[in-house]
Amino acid sequence: MAEGGTVNSETEHSNMSHEIYNFVDNLKVAISSPIKIDAVFNRIMICGMGGSAIGGDVIKDCVIKESKFPITVQRFPDLPKWADSNTFVIISSYSGNTSETLSMYHQAAERGCPMVIMTSGGELEKLGTERGDKIVKMESGFQPRSALGLSMGYLALIIDAACGTNCVREMKRMLPDLYKLRNRLSSDKSEAWEIAQDINGRIPIIYSTAGIYASAIRWKSQINENAKMMAFAGSVPEFNHNEISGWSEGEMRSRCVPVFLYESSAHKAIRKMADASMVSLKKYGQDVRVVRIRGKTPLQRTLRAVMIGDYVSLYLAHMNGVDPMDIRSINEFKSRLNKVLSTVKHAGRSLKRN
Prior knowledge:
Layout: H1 14-21, H2 23-30, E1 43-47, H3 54-63, E2 71-74, E3 87-92, H4 99-110, E4 115-119, H5 122-131, E5 134-137, H6 148-163, H7 167-185, H8 191-199, E6 203-209, H9 213-227, E7 232-236, H10 243-248, E8 256-263, H11 268-283, E9 289-293, H12 298-320, H13 328-353
C-alpha cells in the first residue's frame, strides 16, 4: 500500500482494490444496453441475497418518490402470499447458485409471475433458459458484492423501462463526477483513508437518513466482508425513537463509534433531524464521525456514499492485515446450509412416499 492509503493494484489485496476501482466502469457498461419490459403488473419485487440484493435497496431508495408502482426487496426464501401473476419479479443472483434465491425463483415461476433474471450464470441461468425467461447476463469474474455497479445499472434500466423513472439518464450525467470521486478516493490524500483511521479498532455504527439508508447498509456489509469487522447500520429519524437510549449509558459505548452519512444538500428538515441526533450523541460523550455526502438528488448522494464506503472497507482491511477477498466463513455456512436443505428435501420426499 502506498503512503497515505493508496492501494497499489500490483500489491496486496489487488483483486478487491481492482474490483472496487472498477465500480464506475461497470456502471457505465450496464447502463449502455437498453432493455424492454412488456409485462403487465401492479407491483414489483426484487429477489436476492447479500451483494446481489443491495442494488435493489439502492434503486428502491432512489425511485420511491417517482415510481408508479410499489417496489419491495425480498430476501426471505418464501415469497409473501400477495406475490402473484400481477407481481413483476426481478430475480438477482450474481453466481446463479444461491439456494435462497433459487427457492424464490421456483415459487415465482409456479405463481406465474412475469420475471427478469439477472445473473452471470449457474443454475439460475440454466432454469431461466429452459423456461424461456428474460435473462440479463452479467459479466462473470467478480465477487458478488463487487458486481454492484453492474447490478445497479441493469436494475436501473429495468425499473426505468417498467416504471417510467429516469435513473439511467441521471446516472449517465453523473459519470464524469463519479470518475473524479474515484480518483480522489484512490489517491494518496483520500478522505476514505482518514475515515478508516478514525474508526479502526472500534465497532462502527453507520447512520443515514431514511432516504439513503441503502448506502448505510452497503457500508455495514462491506466492512463486514472486506475488513472482517463487526459493523451495524441504522437510520434517522428512527434512531431518535429507540437507538438513542442505547447510546446514553453502558460500557459498550466506548467500543463503538457512530458514523453519520450527512446529506449536505438534503432538505432542511432532514438535515435538522440528523443534526439533532448528532447533538444528542455528543451530549452523551460520543465521538461522532461525520461523513459529508454531496449531491442534489438521493441517487447522486447514494452513489457517492457507496463509493466512499467501499474504499473505507478496503483501507480497514489493510489496517487489520486481512484479505478482503477471503470469504471462507460465508462459504462454510453455505455448505452447511445446503446440507441441511438437502436433508429436509429428502425427508419431505420420504414422507410423501409413506
